[in-house]
Amino acid sequence: MVLALVLLLLNGGAMAQNNVEVVKSLQTFGSSSLDYRQRQLEMKDVKGSPYLTADFQEGELLMSNTLYKGLQLRYNVYSDRFEIQLNQQTIELDPVKNPIDTLYYSGYKFIRRFLQPDKNKMLSYVAVIYGDGSCMLIKQFRISLTPAKDAGAYEQSKPAEFTPAKPEYFLVRGEEQSQVKGVKSVAGFLNVDPGEVKSYLKSNQLKISEEDDLTVIFAHFLKNTTR
């Protein structure tokens, strides 16, 4: 369903470059507020949360080189959809069906990117951890849903439950990308010897499995290979 969202900006020095209070309507694809409420009702008995943050947070979005600020955003990790709260309605944004290039939310810069985990190509929202558009380390948040379990002869029933899952990390350069699975995947992407990466890990007490350490590793070898 095509929805016209009127995005209002508060005038001031910290606002978008065009420095106006009201910007043109944003035409996008999203679910109706009624559909959104129906899905919320369906999830009311599920334990846990599918969201990256419990509440809506102020964020920004970039579309057609125009930055819109002061928006209330929330990211549903399980459904991979951003939600925008506007005029007492909540609109869900499917990553496939909207023209928004970038969202800034919860301290992250989110972009849309085709990923190929297990060779299944899909367009997803991912967070940029390090780098710019030419070469980046990106992160895909993940939340799993455990189905409800009926009571058995010796156990009680269990409700469905959302639980955080280990995020996936990818190294991307243009259309090229590599999922981070260990030293070899990082070394291969950056075209360095795996032994050199292992030596750097050991001498600096770093682990590929730790996000902060992975960022340091990526930044170090990216800098050395682009000189």
Question: Which helices and strands appear, and what pairs or packs with what?
Answer:
Blueprint: E1 2-5, E2 26-29, H1 33-42, E3 57-63, E4 66-76, E5 81-86, E6 89-93, E7 102-105, E8 108-115, E9 122-131, E10 136-146, E11 161-173, E12 176-179, H2 183-190, H3 194-204, H4 211-225
Antiparallel strand pairs: 1-2, 3-4, 3-7, 4-5, 5-6, 7-8, 8-9, 9-10, 10-11, 11-12
Quickly list its features.
single chain, 227 residues, 2 domains, 19% helix
Compose a concise summary of this entry.
The protein has 227 residues and is an alpha+beta fold.
**How can the largest sheet be summarized?**
10 strands, antiparallel
Widest sheet, order of strands: 6-5-4-3-7-8-9-10-11-12
Record field, number of beta strands: 12
What's the overall average pLDDT, rounded?
80
Strand content: 35-45%
| Total DSSP helices | 4
- What is the helical fraction, as a range of percent? 10-25%
Q: How far is the N terminus from the C terminus?
A: 49 Å
Measured on Cα atoms, how large is the radius of gyration? 21 Å
Instruction: Provide the domain count.
Output: 2
The helix-strand sequence is EEHEEEEEEEEEEHHH
The secondary-structure class comes to: alpha+beta
Point out poorly predicted stretches. Answer: 1-29
- Multimerization status: single chain
Name the shape in a single word: globular
